[in-house]
Amino acid sequence: MQHEKRIETDATASAEFIAPDDPRWSRALAEVEHDLYHLPEYAVLCAGHEGGEPAAFYAETACNRFLVPLLMKRVPFAGRLEPAGRDLISPYGYASPLVVGPDDGEMLGGFLEMFRWVAQELGCVTAFLRLHPLLPLSSLTMREYGRLVRHGETVSIDLTLSEERLWRQIRRDRRAGIRKLIRQGFRVVMDDWRGLDDFVRIYRETMQRVAAKEFYFFERDYFTGLQSRLGGRMHLCQVFSPGGRMAAGGLYSVVNGIVQLHLSGTANEYCRLGPSKLMIHEIALASRAAGARILHLGGGVGGRRDSLFEFKAAFSPQRHPYSTFRMVLMEERYREYCRLWKKEHGEGALSSDYFPLYRYSG
Fold first, then answer.
1. Which residue of 140, 195, 259, 260 is most buried, as measured by CB atoms within 10 A?
2. Closest-CA residue to 31 (of 78, 71, 66)
3. What is the pTM of this model?
């Protein structure tokens, strides 16, 4: 890739940014628990939607390896600045750093120090990482190298439970709703990709209904890319009404035994009936039968304990903390960029704890 910068910290340690086609990316994943969001194919797909250059920070010592999937983006007003700065941002989802091999906290700290050093050499001003709720890292170590922000909780379903226990842990009113949908003739179809266009339609209906940010209105190429780039690791679940219309649908991944409900939606005309209840239960059963061990439903919008979180929470008592990690890699340049942003937008323009500040757009 164009932005490689390699360092040798001692005889056994090295660190650099690598491209998605670098075999070290896939080799590292083969040795550690990981998820959809760590795959190089996924980073490439996200770069097409979010912008930036897909890359991963890769470091190794004699006993350990460290991998962080990233998008490398130019600062929004970089054209007016010299030299132009870049930011490092996790692809959409939970592309948390991964430590391959034994980690006593000190090892993680050493890798984060390498990360800071190499990123600075490339002119990277900040790093914003979304941490994986199911793959925890040492919070004490992380706080030594940046700011750890807790956003809330996510919900998961333990697929190692028996079918009876999975059913019994669903809240009673949700169970009643699922039974009613089945009695009425609603049915679930898995992996019939001929229905992708209908799914895209109802997904967009859902985003319009909940007044989602523009970011979540993915182009059709993103959906087809999930299927073509990820192959058998991405699945489409559809719920059909008694009349044969798609009432709800979801795209979910199965990677390394972890199931992620990636995107989902419900057609406007069926919102009152809540067919997504049936969808989630059937995804859990199908994934369990396929040998997956956990279904991660995610949380509320922005990690909040909102109606979306409460809907997911009705399926399982399991909770996981969701946090982001923020590093200012070049303090002086960061302050200058913030000063320019405030001059252009005004001090009162910022209404949230956004990072980096100069990427806030309201």
1. 259
2. 66
3. 0.91
Contacts for 24 with CB less than 8 Å, ≥ 6 apart? 18, 58
Q: Where are the beta strands (DSSP E) in 181-245?
A: 187-190, 234-240
Distance CA 190, CA 297 (A): 18
Query: Which parts of 243-330 fold into alpha helices (H)?
Result: 276-289, 307-313
Task: Return the sign of the alpha-carbon dihedral for residues 31, 34, 35, 36.
Answer: negative
Which pair of structure tokens corresponds to residue 172?
Answer: 């009673």
Signed CA dihedral, 160, 161, 167, 172: sign only: negative
CA distance 254 to 169: 22
Q: Is 94 in contact with 37 (CB distance < 8 Å)?
A: yes
Q: Which residues pair with 240 in a beta bridge?
A: 187, 246
- Residue 56 CA to residue 337 CA, distance in Å, equals 25
DSSP state of 271: G
Give me the helix-helix angle, 196-209 and 220-230, nearest 10°: 130
For the chain, how many residues are written?
A: 362
Q: What is the pLDDT of residues 293-349, one digit of tens each?
A: 999 999 887 777 888 899 999 999 999 999 999 999 999 989 888 888 888 777 655
Pick from 49, 29, 43, 64: which is nearest to 1 by CA? 43
DSSP state of 234: E
Domains with residue ranges and CATH for the chain: 7-145 (3.40.630), 154-321 (3.40.630.30)
